[in-house]
Amino acid sequence: MSDVDRHGLTKRDRGMLFWASFLALTAAGVGFAFRVMVPNIWGQEFNLTAQEVGSITGAGLWPVAITMIVFSLLIDKIGYKRSMFSAFVLQAISVALTFAAKDARALWWACFFAGLGHGVVEAVINPLCTAVYRDEKSKMLNILHASWPAGIVIGGAVFLLGQHFLPWRPMFIFMLLPVLTYGVMFALCHRYPIDERVEANVSMREMLREFGGLGAFLAITFLFYEISNQIIGVVGPDAGSALARMAANLLAVSLAVGA
User: Fold this and answer.
1) DSSP state of 46
2) Tens digits of residue pLDDT in 178-227
3) Of 63, 69, 189, 237, which shows the fewest CB atoms inside 10 Å?
């Protein structure tokens, strides 16, 4: 009996896509563990205030929502492979910036790129997994998401053991191992499944309608709230009036999406 499914994916193809996705989320978990455990060291080495340390740590969190939402909407156009290549580049840049960081600004950007990469991973691997394993969705999604705590445990263990004989910079290089591995695995995959929404001929508008006006409003509002905080921190409070006008436009968009 052939192991090729209706999308032309062999058992090897399905396994490669799944375990590459598993490693991608593992890499995000490893990086998260490192960034949670290193802030006090950064504060001492770079003479940072508690507010600066918090801002740097937060820069690895809120961008996750941005790319998660954006890539969820664009993945059908961009494709799984290109999306995961984007995640690979963002996570690799994060490691490189962290390793070379000489001030708080560089650390902030390193965490920012890590957050963006994590968001892309989350946006891609879930629909990819369900498209590959349509008859075993719950089982395979549960296995897939075990990679997040696994990454945190691995990252935490490496950091706790390594801090006794290694500076913090080389330890971030460890994160490159799963990043490079999943990058190569996705590059070697030449067949990808068709998204279930596309195959079912469900329009994007119909899909978003399930999200609802309230859901869209909340998502856009909270995203805008954090982005505006970051912008105000850079350009100052005088930007408030312009941001208010943008908020009104976003409110109109969110309500229209859910109409």
Assistant:
1) T
2) 999 999 999 998 888 887 777 767 766 777 676 666 666 676 677 666 66
3) 237
Residue type, 61: L
pTM equals 0.82
Tell me how far apart the alpha carbons of residues 15 and 21 are, in angstroms, rounded to a whole number.
Answer: 10
Q: Which of 38, 24, 23 is nearest to 84 (CA)?
A: 24
Take residue 144 and report the two structure tokens written for it. 């897939």
Q: Which two tokens stand for residue 111?
A: 């965490």
Q: How many CB atoms lie within 10 A of CB 245?
A: 9
List the end-to-end C-alpha distance of the chain, in Å, as a whole number: 48
Shortest CA distance to 34 belongs to which of 179, 144, 162, 146? Answer: 162
Pair 120, 83: CB distance under 8 Å: yes
Report whether 87 contacts 121 (CB < 8 A).
yes
List pLDDT tens digits, range 8-52: 678 888 899 999 999 999 999 999 999 999 988 999 999 999 888
Residue 77 CB coordination number (10 Å): 9
Domain spans in the chain, listed from the N-terminal domain onward: 11-201, 203-259
Vertex 69: Cα angle to 198 and 51 (nearest 5): 165
Q: Please give the Cα distance from 101 to 56 (Å, whole number).
A: 12
Amino acid at 151: G
The tokens of 102 are what? 């000489």
H/E segment holding residue 66: helix 63-78
Pick 11-201's CATH classification: 1.10.260.40, 3.30.360.10, 2.60.120.280, 1.20.1250.20.
Answer: 1.20.1250.20
Contacts of 213 (CB under 8 A, 6+ apart): 254, 255, 257, 258, 259
